[in-house]
Amino acid sequence: MQLEILGNANTVTYQNGALVIKTAQAEARVWVYSPTIIRVCISKNFSEADSSFAVIEKPLDDFTWRHLSEQVELTTAALKLIVNINPLRFNFYTADGKPLSEDDARFGTNWQGERVINYRKLYPDEKFIGLGEKAGDLNRRGCNYVNWNTDASLHTITTDPLYKTFPFFIGLHSGLSYGLFFDNTHKSYFDFGATTDEQMSWFGADGGDMNYYFIGAQGIRNILADYTWLTGRMEMPPLWSLGYQQCRWSYMSAGEVLDVARTFREKHIPADVMYCDIDYMDGYKIFTWNRETFPDPKGMIDELKAMDFRLVTIVDPGIKIDENYSEYKEGVDKHYFATYPNGELYTASVWPGRCHFPDFLNEEVREWWGASFKALTDPGVEGFWNDMNEPAAWGQNMPWLVKFGDKFMPEIRNVYGMQMARATYNGTKRILNGKRPFILTRAAYAGIQRYSAVWTGDNAATDEHMLFGQRLVNSLGLTGMSLIGVDIGGFMGNPTPELMVRWNSLGSYTPMYRNHAALGMSMREPWQWGDEYEQIIKKDIEQRYKLLPYIYSGFYQSVQTGLPLSRTLAIDYTQDENVFDINYQNQFLFGDGLLVAPVISTADGVDVYLPAGDWYRLGSDEKYSGSQVVKVSCPLTDLPVFAKAGAIVPMQNVVQSTNEAGDGILLVHIWNGTEANAFVYYEDDGTSYDYQNGAFYKREISFDPQKRAVIFGEVEGSFVSKYSIIKVVWHGFENAGTIEAENSTQPFIITY
Ligand code: GLC
Q1: Is 387 known to be catalytic?
Q2: How far, in Å, is the centroid of ligand 1 from the Cα of 157?
Q3: Which of 48, 331, 557, 582 is in Cβ range 3.0-4.6 Å of 336 for a Cys bridge?
Q4: Nearest CA owner, ligand 1 atom 12
Q5: CA 408, CA 54: separation in Å to the nearest integer?
Q6: Which residues line ligand 1 (CB under 6 A)?
C-alpha cells in the first residue's frame, strides 16, 4: 500500500464562503462557523453533497484571510489559522499567537489506500479528555482507541471499542484548551501519543475525508457550548424519566409488571418507570405484544398509570422473517431492508431468529419505522428503548458488503444506531402529539443528544464496573450528552447486597437512574435485600426525589448550554492536576453545587480530593477546606457527597412519583460561603412542549454574603410554579432558622 502525501499547495482561492486549496493529489477546504470554530476538510474526491449526521449549523458567508508568500493566514476574533503552503499544513493559534494545536510538521495529513490519517504535534504537557464512552482514564494521553460500534456484551473495564462513537476530544496544554471533532462515520482511530514515543498524536479513519471542526474556545464549558451549538442540544426530558426506573430482562407477564409496581407503592418507595424488555413481544417481533402473557396491554398500562407509573418498552432493529408478520411483509414489499450488492436481502440472526434490518439511513424507512410505534403508543407506552442497534447480530461480524441504499456497512455502521433513535424520536414525538417521548439508545454517534438518552450497555455486578460506569458517565458528559445511565446493580452477575446498596446510592446521583439486570440474574428490586438494606435503598431513592427540582434545573442548563448534569471535575478545575489523578478521577460535580465521590462497597473510609474552595459534607454539614485530600467515612448509609460553599440547591419534600403534586413547598438549601453565587431555577409542566412557547417558570436565585441576602429574581415565563411556598434552609450559618416566604413572581430578598 502506497503512502500518498498531501503535498504542496498549488492554488489558493476563495469560493462561496470557503478557502479552497489545491494540491496535486487533493483539495482542502476551510470554513469558518463562528469566531471560535473553523472547519477543515481534506479530500481526494470532494463530494458537493456536503452532509453530516452530527452537524446542524452552517458556515459563515465570509471571513478575513490573506495570502502571504509561504502562508495563508485566516483570522477571526478568537483564532488564527496559519496554513503553511509548502507542504500543506494547518496550524491553529489563539488570536494573540499562542499555539493551540498544529499538524505534525513532517507528516500532516496523508493516505494509505483509502485510510486517511492526520498526525499532530504533541505538546509536552498536553492532556486529552473526551471520546465519550471509552475505557481508560480521564486523561487519555498514552492511550489509543477505535470507534466501531460494537455489541460489547461481556465487556471488561478495558474493552475497546464499546457501543458508541463520539470522535470528539478536548486537548489541554500550556493553560489553553481546544476541541477537535472529526466528523467521519467510518471506523476511526485516535492515538494520543500511545505508540509514538511521545512524538505526536494521530487520528484518522478507514475511509472518507479528513473532515474536522476545530474549536478554539477557551475553557471546557465554552468548548462544550460550541460543540453542542454545532451538533445540537437535548430537549427538556420528560420529568418522569428523571425519577427512579425499574427494569429487568424481563418481567415476563403483565401480572409481574403490575406486582412490582404495586410493591413500590405499598412500601412507599418512590418510583416512576417500569420497563418491558424483549419478552413482552410475540416471538420477539417488534411492534407486537405476546397476547398470552400480556393479554391486555392497554389495561395493564392504565393500571400502571393509575399508580403513577409510566411504561418503557424495548425495540430492536431486527425484523423477524415471518410471512404472517406485517412489518416484515411491508418492509420486503417496499424495499426497506439492507441488502447484499446483488439485491438479495441481508439476513442475520438475533433474538427473533432470522431477521432483516431496516435501512434507517433512508428517510422513508425512518418515517415507516416511526409510524409503526402506534402499536405501542395506542395502549399508552411513552418511552422507547432502542437496543442492539450497533447493529448487533449473533456472530457480531456483519459483512462489509451489506448495503444501505448506496452505502456499504463500513461507512454507516457507526451511525446506524443514531438513525434508528432519530426515527424513533421523530415518529413517537409525532404520534404522542405534544407529549415528550423518552428515547433510550445503546449505540450512538455524535449529535445523538438531539434525539435520545443513552446507557452504557451490559456491565457487570462488580465494584470496578461501578467505578468504570461513572468514568463513562463523566466522559459521555464531554460529548453533549447529559441524560446518561448505567445498569445500576450490574447487568451480568449478582451483586452482593452491599454493592447493590452502594450502587443505588450512586445511582441517585446518576442522570438517568435505572436498575437493570440480565435474564437469570438475581432479582434486583429494592426489597430483595432484607429490611435493613431496603431502608437504605429507600432513603437514597427518596433523596433523588428530594433533589428533583435541582436536577430538573440542571437539565435546563444542558438544554441551554450543553453542560452535562454529571460533570468530570476537569470541566471546572481544569488546571488542577489532582482532578486527573487516577485516585480521584471518578469524582464529579452533580449540577452546580454538589460533589460526589464514588466509592466501592467494601470501604468504610475513603480519600476524597476537594478542589479549591470550602465544602460541606451533605447531611452533617461538616466543613472542609478544599485544595486537599481529606479522609472521610463512607458507611453504606452515607455516600460521600459535598456541597460547595455558596451552593444553592432547590429541593422538595419526598413524593412517591413525579406525578404527585407534593406539598407545594420548595426548599432552597444554601451553604454559607464568602463568595457570591447564583443559580438558575427552572420549572415547567414536565411533560409537554409548551415550554418552548413560554410556558416555563424561571428565576435566578442568588446568594450575596456581603449583603447577607438571598435574592429571588423576577420570574420569567408564564408557567405557574407547583410550589406556592419557598423555604430557605441555611447550612453553616449561625443562628439562621428556616425562613418561609410566599412564592411571588416578583423579586424579593431574604436577609439573614
Ligand atoms: C441487550 C441489552 C440489555 C437487554 C438485553 C435483552 O443485552 O444490552 O440491556 O436487557 O439485550 O433485551
Answers
A1: yes
A2: 18
A3: 331
A4: 278
A5: 19
A6: 153, 249, 277-278, 314, 387, 442, 457-458
The pTM is what?
Answer: 0.98
Measured CA to CA in angstroms, residue 542 lies from 244, 247, 466 at distances of 9, 18, 21
Ligand 1 center to 238 CA (angstroms): 23
Q: Based on the residue annotation, tell me whether 62 is a catalytic residue of this protein.
A: no
For residue 671, give every residue at least 6 positions away whose Cβ sits within 8 Å of its Cβ, in sequence order, or none: 593, 616, 621, 643, 644, 645, 646, 647, 731, 732
- Can you tell me the mean pLDDT for 252-269? 98
Answer for the pair 489, 458: CB distance below 8 angstroms, yes or no. no
Please state, in angstroms and rounded to a whole number, the distance separating the CA atoms of residues 566 and 429. 26
Q: Quote the CA–CA distance of 549 and 569 in Å, as a whole number.
A: 23
For a pocket test of ligand 1, which of 249, 281, 316, 440 has the largest count of ligand atoms closer than 8 A to its C-beta?
249
Query: pLDDT tens across 202-236, in order?
Result: 999 999 999 999 999 999 999 999 999 999 999 99
3-state secondary structure of 101: strand
The yes-or-no verdict on residue 735 having pLDDT over 80 is: no
For residue 115, name the pLDDT band (cuts at 50, 70, 90).
very high
The candidate with the shortest Cα–Cα distance to 456, out of 431, 425, 481, is 481
Has 292 been annotated as catalytic? no
Cα gap 237→404, rounded to integer Å: 31
Query: Cα 182 to the chain's mean position, in Å?
Result: 18
Name the catalytic one among 359, 390, 540, 638. 390
DSSP 395: T
**Residue whose CA lies nearest to ligand 1 atom number 3:** 458
Place of cell 415507516: 368
For residues 468 and 496, the answer to whether their CB atoms sit within 8 Å is: no
Element (H, E) at 85: strand 79-85
pLDDT in tens, 626-640: 999 999 999 999 999
Concatenated DSSP letters of 409-432: HHHHHHHHHHHHHHHHHHHHHHHH
| Backbone φ and ψ of 547, nearest 5° | -80, -5
Which atom of ligand 1 sits closest to the CA of residue 487? 9
Looking at residue 156, the DSSP 8-state letter turns out to be: -
Yes or no: say if 415 and 53 are a contact pair by the CB < 8 Å rule: yes
The three-class DSSP label of residue 628 is: strand
Q: Which of 624, 620, 617, 630 is nearest to 584 (CA)?
A: 630
Domains and CATH numbers, the chain: 3-231 (2.60.40.1760)
